[in-house]
Request: fold
Amino acid sequence: MTIRSVFITGIASGVGAKIAARGLAAGMNVYGCDIDAEAVETVSLRHEGQSLTVFRCDIADTPSLFACFDEALSLSGGIDALVNNAGLYLGQPIAAYDDATIERVIAVNLTAPMKLSRRFAEAKQRAGGAGAIVNIASVAGEVGSSDAVYGSVKAAVIGLTKSNAMNFAPAIRVNAVSPGLIVDTAIARAIPDYRYAEYKRQEMLDGDLTTDSVADVVAFLLSPASRSMTGAILRSDNGCYPR
Ligand SMILES: NC(=O)c1ccc[n+]([C@@H]2O[C@H](COP(=O)([O-])OP(=O)(O)OC[C@H]3O[C@@H](n4cnc5c(N)ncnc54)[C@H](O)[C@@H]3O)[C@@H](O)[C@H]2O)c1
Reply:
């Protein structure tokens, strides 16, 4: 099916902003949310006059997240695709975490995508027709992370992808992209130096992995070209940590 409307979390910068730009270029109505008020204003101005609507919200605040999504639903008349992109990475060992921070990282990276996927699927099932979900996981969820909380939630996002592929079939395809080190992001700047060097050392391909490369794989998963795929985890990682 052709996706005509998409909702993207963490839409205002990094990978999310690139996914939004590709959606607009493909003629989609693009909706999304982000916690960063300044970045929301910047991305909205950048695409002024285009079919982009961005809400400011913290996805860990479920009533606020659902209010944004429901508003996007009523403005659009139906959302065909969801990209669970927003992520929180602190790049610290487990000993540096207090309990509230552990809960926060789980809420943003796992609970919010889980609840929003359910809300999206309920709406899609009411409306009928086919749809797609793309989750953004991480190489950290496959090979481990020096940040145990982040590594755990990203492994869980891979589990969520496979389980929801079963839960929402046959109407909704659910796939994930598992990126490596994306150099032009705030998250990359938070990665400890020794881990950054290790990721680069592991890469088989020349050049840096960028937000554009990752957005290209997401665009594929939203396109009819991937119509036979669900429950798949696609890597966008310059070949680091072959697995
Ligand atoms: N950057 C990397 O090297 C890398 C590697 C693997 C996976 N990832 C994943 O890719 C995805 C995109 O990350 P990115 O690198 O573009 O990061 P980024 O920090 O550049 O962008 C993330 C966006 O999400 C928003 N956001 C964060 N917390 C939020 C919240 N609670 N509510 C709403 N919005 C929120 C931020 O404001 C930001 O605009 C994340 O899921 C991340 O875990 C990133």
